[in-house]
């Protein structure tokens, strides 16, 4: 295929989804190139971003994004953003009578946001030289490439672990005024008016909330020439699971020929949780998963939890990451890195796979739930070859579960998409001297795709799969958390000798990442366990308020039955038959 740009509209539904989305958009922004003479990159940025113009004539480049959250979730961020100032004085008053003014103290900005304000005002650190040359794409009054270079040259080391309260505390890009949608019916903080149940979320998508979402969708869609679909990031644990179910249903009804790829997000822990809320989470997981899977091209849970049941295992441990799973700022950065790689196939400039084809290759015979795995980073020594790196993994695949679903390890898989990103400057094939015998089969192959495909085939023989190699890495710019071990060099490759503790000369600025998206028999017992956990709960007795705003008890029970049937689709003896609600029930 050529370089035809197939646009995507992204929707982020819920606070944790916006955490992951903020890191993800920061990663995309860090990879943008504003030099008109630079060769085009491997990824087509216009798939995700749109060009616009402010009232002052400045060219802007902003995400094609709708982000929904609750009242009180924005803190220092203005809902309409700061790109498209109208020039009107918001304090202008025509009333001639007495006026009483009440001032509310504004939330405090952290060091990163204060520096961004200085950049926008042209007050950046004195040691940096300014280049007054205008740039074709700007994220506001200052080109974001300039922001990147100035922050990096200033060697700013932000430690935001103690100051990040909401996702806007580390957002580095400007958003379009049509992007942020605040749901005023429910509060982000406090005990009252919380969006806690699936039924509350389902009931939201009507009236003004529905009209507002439709207006925003139409704005972004109408300017697309070749819309390929939607990627939806949705919180699973709270009422956004119900809202996401209705949103994906609306997208399916209105844009059924497009791809709808839904990523269900769940943090490892919630700061204000209680035993009753944990039961709500389990019910929301179950209902949200079955409904969003039904309405989407595929549904992939993304979480660092050890499981979605009542007694989850420990979060996955990555050999070269030092992250705190309980910190949303940390866990969301790990998932965003994975998502940056998982979404590569339908963002490529050349030979991209449209979203609907990408989903169809995985979601076969009704198996619409897929699982993600990732090696973050991909363990590779600086200067070694890809065959060497894969050979060092021996018989153990280097990735960890990113969907709370461990692999079975039996070599069975219905379909798989593997992406390796970021081996720029490294050798993809073995550099053998003439006459030297290749130590392994991998060392005898002629290109990187063959090397990776041969490695995957050895672990998953007779399994349909695709591989993608992208040389450009995930670029890490402030304020991405420095959660990396001392064994990694600046480009994210392993060093032969790690520096002494606290002696790293500079931060990790890029990272190689290996990810896998699988339709696997492992999802069968995983979904069955989720079904059993939810089925043992009688919401009328232990959580009567859960059904107070819907769904009806019969609908609730029918959804759990659909979850049970979905689990049966992943049995190895299913024979590839399409799963249907009319199948006879039998044991898990």
UniProtKB/TrEMBL annotation:
List where in the cell it is found.
Cytoplasm; Mitochondrion
Name the Pfam families on file.
Misat_Tub_SegII, Tubulin_3
Keyword Cytoplasm attached: yes
Q: Which SUPFAM superfamilies does the UniProt entry name for this protein?
A: Tubulin nucleotide-binding domain-like
An example of a Gene Ontology cellular component annotation for this protein is: mitochondrion
Swiss-Prot/TrEMBL GO biological process terms: mitochondrion organization
Q: Which UniProt keywords apply?
A: Cytoplasm, Mitochondrion
Q: Which residues form the Misato Segment II tubulin-like domain?
A: 6-118
Q: Provide the primary localization.
A: cytoplasm
Q: What is this protein called?
A: Protein misato homolog 1
Q: Which organism is it from?
A: Oncorhynchus kisutch
